[in-house]
Amino acid sequence: MTAALSVDSLWKIFGPRSDKIIGTPDAELSRADLKAKTGNVVGVKDVSFDVAPGEVFVIMGLSGSGKSTLVRLLTRLIEPTSGSVNLGGVDITSASEAELRDVRRKQVSMVFQHFGLLPHRQVIDNVAYGLEVRGVPKKERRAKAGEIVDLVGLSGYEMSYPDQLSGGMQQRVGLARALAGDPEMLLFDEPFSALDPLIRRDMQNEVIRLHSELGKTMVFITHDLAEALKLGDRIMILRDGAIVQVGTPDEVVARPADDYVKDFVSEVPKAHVLTLKWVMREPRPGEALDGPTLPVTTVVRQAARTAIASDAPIRVMDGDTMLGVVDEEDIMRVVVAEEES
Ligand SMILES: Nc1ncnc2c1ncn2[C@@H]1O[C@H](COP(=O)(O)OP(=O)(O)OP(=O)(O)O)[C@@H](O)[C@H]1O
């Protein structure tokens, strides 16, 4: 299957003569050392990854890790120093201005932290804006926008103006606007960072629901690990512009690539994230093998009740194949370790 997004050896170095650094030993320097030696700052350092169609791919990192730079490179809002980006079959790196405009209008929509709504337009016309730019006639674009307004739970607010809505509702308008043009991919740049925790949780659930209904490819930028774990099919962790780890949420939590990631995930409630894959074991000699079955993808916490209710260990399955077993004690070990940490 062709990737929805493919990034290959992408670099962005800010500062003088930045294109002369890649390929030299200076490129290997830490960000601080390179800055001290040459005055250049590495925004994105030799980043490669693929996003599959329909995947939710989260790019996570602390402030300064290069998230905003990377997301801007994806649609070439800034020029890369080297490397390539292929978005839905279009080579972004060599695309003409006209092709880029087309990609930004039709293939990818962005949702930002600052909603960027047009204050003097009603919700319906904010949502329809992208269609208007494309020249879709008023009746048609309003009908389409109306459908999307319903989809994001804003029915009844079509005629409201942005400043009459709460932050969470404004971000729903932002989401609706991004969806109205029926893009293949949504790019979220820290969209919920400014929202209250409860509203933020609602919006995350909204993203999960919309993804399951529409199946769009999503690239989601965040500095919040809990958000990354909740939303991502896979998570890519950046530090100083470089990739530290790419993996599924349970891989990242179970097998952090280094101390940096380990530190990040130390507070994560493991039983809520780890799947049986990480706690199953070989059956012991003589152990009963007629216990209940659960898929290997079951989260540990969800397996607890089954384990407690059964004398024989749970058989952990991949389809018809038994991969291992877990019993109550195996599960308690994860839960207790979590309480102690
Ligand atoms: N135009 C620029 N000129 C020089 N350096 C820049 C420029 N833009 C970004 N940088 C530097 O590149 C690095 C990565 O910044 P970037 O904004 O991409 O990080 P971030 O992870 O998005 O952080 P934040 O969450 O704070 O926005 C930082 O050291 C930043 O100072």
Automatic annotation (TrEMBL):
Keywords: ATP-binding, CBS domain, Nucleotide-binding, Transport
GO BP: any one term: glycine betaine transport
Cleaved signal peptide residues: none
Domain ABC transporter stretches: 29-265
Entry similarity comment: Belongs to the ABC transporter superfamily.
GO molecular function, one term: ATP binding
Species annotation: Nocardioides exalbidus
Family matches, as InterPro entries: AAA+_ATPase, ABC_osmolyte_uptake_ATP-bind, ABC_transporter-like_ATP-bd, ABC_transporter-like_CS, Gly-betaine_transp_ATP-bd, P-loop_NTPase
One Pfam family it belongs to: ABC_tran
Protein name: Glycine betaine/proline transport system ATP-binding protein
Top-rank taxon, per record: Bacteria
Gene Ontology cellular component terms for the protein in this record: membrane
